């Protein structure tokens, strides 16, 4: 078996003598102009058979079944797999890709959302004089610049602050960050800079002031990872790739080589997960790009092959946007256990993570309570005591599995390869494993180079450097203004559509329904506090969304942003999909249940809801218990010891507050621990105790009852009869 640990060494003119001689600004402009000209020439050569309209999933499945033989079949629809498909199809190779779940359903949608070279890797490279690690950072910085250029609607530079609390660390960290800029060369996004304590607190007012001596700000990239993955896959479809999600590989096909007499991998037996239909896909070359599931596909080729994947779980949490500035991230370079924690604004919320712990391979990783609390504790260490970091503020949490790999050529077989590995088995199966999100394109290029060489394929040179991805063409920073003016969308919705779909945002706007209001004219929101609209569900189906989970997790990012909001939007999402896809009642019910299970287990809803079920103790003082019992009895007028939706409805109507019965049922259900349709006094005290300790925040029932009590106290005793029952 041939293994190679690949690392492309690209000569890049950066700073130093060359930059000084030509003049840095002239050099940068020259390189940019030369790059733009090569991009135009490359794209002019490419034909996009589906430039105007994407083929349906059924058409893609038909292409997989009826094509006599593909040049390349890629297994895996994550960032690397989609990148391999795009690289192959743009080299004029007949290309197929199958993914057993949805595009980006695994690791690629559960990242830190950064496009970066790796500051910590550069630190190790310098401290350990590790040239390979240095080159890995250099390559990643080149790829960072390319990704920001080819998908400007989905990515942008992000300033990240590194707070400094010891004077001696200021020059140390400054030198390291400046080296990061230097290694980036002409691909440096913006020059890093030092801030005084006063300026640091102006930029990041939530920061802990005590012992702060200053801060250093550097720049990396940030993106919408699942949408970026999808953009790569859809771009491959535009150029003629036969690509299908929910299509799993049952086993590999093999044929005997007439010259050598050895068996060669010649395709795969596939199954449509939705219909159960099985079929063969023939290909000259099969590429295994399945991330954490790398070894399961390798063992389809040879049961005796050794494992190379060492999965590691990384947990992230989402907390409200007020925890960080709108456009400034934070890096904790040395946590209590030596790990690095990022604290980043994203989609108007704040992401904090990640952890790093060994795990088993699973398609449904679950964020653990210990990891969530570890991240919260680290966040507390860096934020001002004025900011109470509460467990109840966690809006969502997820775990992603990093497919770290061991190098079989290493004397120590347990050593982790810090880059990626391309392997070609004796039967010709090409495997790409390891690596990072940022370098997906260069990994794909190296994989295809190896595949073409080993299988004798006739192909053109790689064309993916500078190749604009789905939605990039036609996008401008002011595109959202046209959406507002031409379609009557809310500004926030228009900005969201432009940042999510780029030039394709107009297609989504055209599908939007009239609201019947004076403003906005079109664009009904799925949930009030987020800019996602109903027409996005219809467009998601065109983008090969097959389940409600696809919509809440990867076409929109609602499930990653706020699990409760996603749960509230689910019934309408399922209703729209059921009508469009002609689902039976049985399928509709199953979809709703599956999506709720996904939110409950994989997106942290369970951890959020269990803050009440786990809180058996009621930690309230005597006065608090008296106050909360008094509040409870304003609703429990008959002193039964419990309240129902009817009781709450009567009190609300008495103060002229009207809430839909279904919405009220959901509000009580959040607190109803034993699920008997009523809230006992102990459950209410348990809720208020959890609110006090920060385990629960934004409890709708707690806020509702407090507001109602205050209104009643101001008005004095008013009977339901006198108030007219709110009618």
Can you give a write-up of this model?
- Pathway: Polyol metabolism; glycerol degradation.
- Its EC number is 1.1.5.3.
- It is an enzyme of class 1 (oxidoreductase).
- It comes from Pleuronectes platessa (European plaice).
- Residues 623-658, 659-694 form the EF-hand domain.
- The chain is of the alpha+beta class and 727 residues long.
- It contains 27 helices and 22 strands.
- The strands form 3 sheets. Strands 4, 5, 6, 7, 12, 13, 14, 15, 16, 17 and 18 form an 11-stranded mixed sheet that branches. Strands 1, 2, 3, 8, 9, 10, 11, 19 and 20 form a 9-stranded mixed sheet that branches. A two-stranded antiparallel ribbon has the order 21-22.
- The model is unreliable at 1-38 and 718-727 (pLDDT under 50).
> Radius of gyration from the CA trace?
28 Å
Average pLDDT number = 87
For the record, give the distance between the C-alpha atoms at the N and C termini, rounded to a whole number. Answer: 79 Å
* Structural class computed from helices and strand pairing: alpha+beta
Q: Which bin fits the share of residues in helices?
A: 40-55%
The count of strands amounts to: 22
Low-confidence stretches: 1-38, 718-727
Total helical elements: 27
| % residues in beta strands | 15-25%
* Shape, per Cα inertia axes: globular
Q: State the major sheet.
A: 11 strands, mixed
What labels would you give this structure?
disordered C terminus, eleven-stranded mixed β-sheet, single chain, 27 helices, 43% helix, 22 strands, alpha+beta, 727 residues, flavoprotein, disordered N terminus
């Amino acid at each position: 078996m041939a293994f190679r640990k690949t690392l492309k060494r690209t000569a890049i003119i950066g700073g130093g003598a060359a930059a000084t001689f030509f003049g840095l600004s002239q050099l940068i402009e020259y390189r940019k102009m030369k790059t733009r000209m090569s991009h135009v020439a490359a794209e002019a050569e490419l034909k996009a058979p589906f430039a105007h309209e994407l083929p349906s999933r059924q058409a893609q499945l038909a292409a997989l079944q009826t094509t006599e033989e593909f040049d390349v079949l890629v297994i895996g629809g994550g960032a690397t797999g989609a990148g391999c498909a795009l690289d192959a199809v743009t080299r004029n190779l007949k290309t197929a890709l199958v993914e057993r779940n949805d595009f980006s359903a695994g690791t690629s949608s559960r990242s830190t959302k950064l496009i970066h070279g790796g500051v910590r890797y550069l630190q190790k490279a310098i401290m350990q004089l590790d040239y390979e690690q240095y080159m890995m950072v250099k390559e990643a910085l080149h790829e960072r610049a390319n990704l920001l250029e080819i998908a400007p609607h989905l990515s942008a530079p992000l300033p990240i602050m590194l707070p400094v609390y010891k004077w001696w660390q200021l020059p140390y960290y400054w030198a390291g960050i400046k080296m990061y800029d230097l290694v980036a060369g002409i691909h440096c996004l913006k020059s890093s800079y030092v801030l005084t304590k006063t300026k640091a607190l102006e930029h990041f007012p939530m920061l802990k002031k005590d012992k702060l001596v200053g801060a250093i700000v550097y720049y990396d990239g940030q993106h919408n990872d699942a949408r970026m993955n999808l953009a790569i896959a859809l771009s491959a479809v535009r150029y003629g790739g036969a690509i299908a999600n929910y299509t799993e590989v049952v086993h590999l096909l093999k044929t005997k080589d007439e010259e050598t007499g050895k068996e060669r991998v010649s395709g795969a037996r596939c199954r449509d997960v939705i219909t159960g239909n099985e079929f063969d896909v023939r290909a000259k070359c099969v590429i295994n790009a399945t991330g954490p599931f790398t070894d399961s596909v390798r063992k389809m080729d040879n049961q005796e092959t050794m494992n190379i994947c060492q999965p590691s779980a990384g947990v992230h949490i989402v907390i409200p946007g007020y925890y960080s500035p709108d456009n400034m991230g934070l890096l904790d370079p040395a946590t209590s256990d030596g790990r690095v924690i990022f604290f980043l604004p994203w989609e108007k919320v704040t992401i904090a993570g990640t952890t790093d712990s060994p795990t088993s391979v699973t398609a449904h990783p679950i964020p653990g309570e210990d990891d969530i609390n570890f991240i919260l504790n680290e966040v507390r260490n860096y934020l001002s005591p004025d900011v109470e970091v509460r467990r109840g503020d966690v809006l969502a949490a997820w775990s992603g599995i990093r497919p770290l790999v061991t190098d079989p050529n290493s004397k120590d077989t347990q050593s982790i390869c810090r880059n990626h590995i391309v392997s070609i088995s004796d039967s010709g199966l090409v495997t790409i494993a390891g690596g990072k999100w940022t370098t997906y394109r260069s990994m794909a290029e190296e994989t295809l180079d190896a595949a073409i060489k080993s299988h004798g394929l006739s192909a053109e040179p790689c064309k993916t450097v500078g190749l604009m991805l789905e939605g990039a063409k036609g996008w401008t920073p002011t595109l959202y203004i046209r959406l507002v003016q031409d379609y009557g969308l809310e500004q926030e919705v228009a900005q969201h559509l432009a940042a999510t779909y780029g030039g394709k945002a107009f297609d989504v706007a055209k599908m939007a329904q009239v609201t019947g209001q004076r403003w906005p004219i079109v664009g009904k929101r799925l949930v009030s506090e987020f800019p996602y609209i109903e027409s996005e569900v219809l467009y998601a189906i065109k983008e090969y969304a097959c389940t409600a989970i696809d919509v809440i997790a990867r076409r929109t990012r609602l499930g990653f942003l706020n699990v409760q909001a996603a749960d509230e939007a689910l019934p309408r999402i399922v209703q729209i999909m059921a009508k469009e896809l002609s689902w039976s009642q049985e399928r509709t019910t199953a979809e709703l249940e599956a999506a709720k299970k996904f939110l409950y287990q994989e997106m942290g809803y369970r951890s959020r809801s269990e803050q009440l079920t786990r809180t058996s103790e009621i930690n309230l003082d005597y006065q608090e218990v008296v106050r909360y019992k008094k509040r409870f009895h304003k609703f429990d007028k008959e002193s039964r010891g419990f309240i129902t939706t009817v009781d709450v409805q009567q009190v609300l109507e008495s103060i002229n507050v009207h809430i839909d019965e279904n919405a009220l049922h959901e509000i009580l259900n959040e607190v109803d621990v034993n699920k008997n349709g009523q809230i006992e006094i102990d459950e209410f005290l348990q809720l208020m105790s959890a609110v006090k300790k920060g385990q629960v925040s934004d409890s709708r029932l707690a806020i509702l009852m407090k507001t109602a009590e205050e209104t009643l106290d101001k008005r004095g005793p008013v009977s339901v009869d006198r108030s007219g029952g709110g009618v």
